[in-house]
Amino acid sequence: MVASVTVDSKLATLRGQLPALTQTGYFNAGTNGPLPRVAHETLVTAATRELEAGRIVPGVYQGNWERNRKVATLLASMFNADEDEFALTHSTTEGMGAALMGLTWRPGDEVVTTNREHPGLLSPLSLLAHRFGVTVRQADIGNGGGDVAAAIGSLVNARTRVIALSHVIWSTGAVIPLAEISALARQHGALVVVDGAQSAGQVPIDLHGSGVDAYALPGQKWLCGPEGTGALYVRRDRLADIAPTFLRYAQYEVSGYLIPAPGARRFEIGEFYSPSILAQNAALTWLRDEVGLDWAYARTVEMGQRVQRGLEQIDGVSVITPAHRAAGLICFTGEGITPQEITSQLYERGMTIRYVDVAPNPPIARVSAAWWNTEEEIDALLAAIAEIVSAR
After folding, report:
1. Is residue 333 part of a domain?
2. How many Cα atoms are found within 13 Å in the side-chain-facing hemisphere of 267?
3. By CB distance 3.0 to 4.6 Å, which of 131, 156, 201, 352 could disulfide with 223?
4. For residue 78, what are the contacts with CB-CB under 8 A and spacing of at least 6?
5. Would residue 35 count as lying in a domain?
6. Do 14 and 58 have their domain in common?
7. 108 and 151 together in one domain
8. Residue-wise pLDDT tens digits, 262-293
């Protein structure tokens, strides 16, 4: 009882920092997470300062560099990496593009991916095929609940340069065992490039321990930061293998020669909106120090299990997510009703989920159950889904 009271008290305090939760049953962190007050206040304060004092003031360039490195340091502490292995980006897609397009490709090179990937990965892979004659092979992994490493391994050969895939599959919710994929890649001398759009903030990430070579992540989803934020991790001993795709002032050392900036900072593209980066810093600090990552991960799994078990009891509902590889992203379909209709009717009831209907993925409805959700919210969601599906 004491433990329950403690959890309830902590959850109530944290939910109070997420005003969006008072407006809707918020089950869509897989698109955008709720913005915490501290991030909003930081963003507004910084934007107001720029408005009133100007944007180019003494010390601004050094301040911007320190601002960016604070975010990199936070990410390194959260995901078991080093600060200089992170470049800031504006999105996961930008990070994936920087990693993949920075490699030296030749006709006949191959990439192995899966048939469940997001366009943010498929788009740069398509560009590789078009520009460099790279062959892209897609492993059929079903819902991600089977032997993913074996499915991918069946397509890997001596021409395979990269295995590129998601850590959490956006259209099934399956958490992929990255260490197995990395071990497979090492056997064939291939790199592993990971789309972390649905993993960062939802599940534990051990970048050094997983053995991956590059890992792109967003700031606005499960990490609850503003849009236009993200990062790319590149393992230190792979820095020489990936060239910067664009150059900007902060990416090189001024010496008469083009010398890449130290570490992964060389992969940063363009400038960053200072208030957004400061807000991202505030959101990450809040998640790490006040929410607590281990607690957040454990509660997210608990809430995801509650959704999954409840959906499995509803007549006419088919759960897509494999239970043994599930966290908070739970995908399902309803008999006789489209995922879009389910999503629309839930929104009319004050509950926000997401439908995914992007080829080659089959249409599904997707619930992002997170640590901030209450048991009562989830039970209300399940009751609404049961009512909607039974009415068809």
Report:
1. yes
2. 36
3. 201
4. 205, 284, 287, 288, 293
5. no
6. no
7. yes
8. 899 999 988 899 999 999 999 999 999 999 99
Question: Do 70 and 199 belong together in one domain?
Answer: yes
Task: Give me the phi and psi of 195, to 5 degrees please.
Answer: -90, 110
Start-end of H helices in the chain: 2-15, 37-53, 60-79, 92-101, 119-132, 148-153, 178-187, 207-210, 274-286, 293-312, 339-348, 375-390
- CATH, residue 328: 3.90.1150.10
Strands 329-334 and 317-319: antiparallel
Q: Domain ends where: 266, 288, 310?
A: 288
Cα gap 147→356, rounded to integer Å: 24
Cα gap 82→98, rounded to integer Å: 19
Asked if residue 178 is part of any domain, the answer here is: yes
Q: Which structural domain, as residue segments, surrounds residue 363?
A: 2-30+292-390
Neighbours of 258 (CB within 10 A): 11
- Is residue 125 located within the same domain as residue 19? no
Task: Round to whole Å and give the CA distance between 371 and 366.
Answer: 16
What is the total count of domains within the chain? 2
Residue 269 has which token pair? 């593209």
Q: pLDDT tens, 167-216?
A: 999 999 999 999 999 999 999 999 999 999 999 999 999 999 999 999 99
| pLDDT tens-digit readout, 223-275 | 999 999 999 999 999 999 999 987 765 555 556 667 778 899 999 988 899 99
Size of the chain in residues: 392
User: Residue ranges of the alpha helices (H) in 138-255?
Assistant: 148-153, 178-187, 207-210
Residue 175 CB neighbours (<10 A) = 25
| Tokens 């997401």, located at residue | 354
Closest Cα to residue 103, out of 231, 37, 190?
190
* Tens-place pLDDT, residues 126-182: 999 999 999 999 999 999 999 999 999 999 999 999 999 999 999 999 999 999 999
**Residue 173: partners with Cβ closer than 8 Å, 6 or more residues away:** 144, 198, 304, 320, 321, 325, 326, 327, 328, 329, 330, 331, 366
Tell me if 37 sits within 8 A of 20, measured CB to CB: no
Its pTM surpasses 0.70: yes
Average pLDDT, the chain: 94
Token representation of residue 186: 């090492």
